[in-house]
């Protein structure tokens, strides 16, 4: 299994467990909405980008809390 294939599988598992879209993952982890798509198509991958993506996946996952509900204007 190539390094690209292994990384893609790890990303697929990560997004499935976290319930996020691959495009969201790419935007947050690599700064590229199409990151995963490009990998699947055989795109190149810089070592520093792979390190950044792996570091992102290794970090604890923090779900952002929903913003507080706004109170009615005439309350």
Overview of the molecule:
This protein has four helices and no strands. It is an all-alpha fold and 75 residues long. The relative contact order is 0.14.
Task: Describe what is shown at a glance.
This protein has helices spanning 3-18, 22-30, 35-40, 47-58. With 75 residues, it is mainly alpha-helical.
What labels would you give this structure?
single chain
Describe the protein's topology.
Elements: H1 3-18, H2 22-30, H3 35-40, H4 47-58
Give me the Rg, rounded: 16 Å
Structural class: mainly alpha
Distance between the termini: 62 Å
Percentage of residues in strands? under 5%
Give helix % range.
Answer: 55-70%
Main sheet makeup: none
Low-confidence stretches: none
Shape: elongated
Number of strands: 0
- Helices, by number, come to 4
From N to C, what is the helix and strand string? HHHH
Oligomer: single chain
Average pLDDT: 86
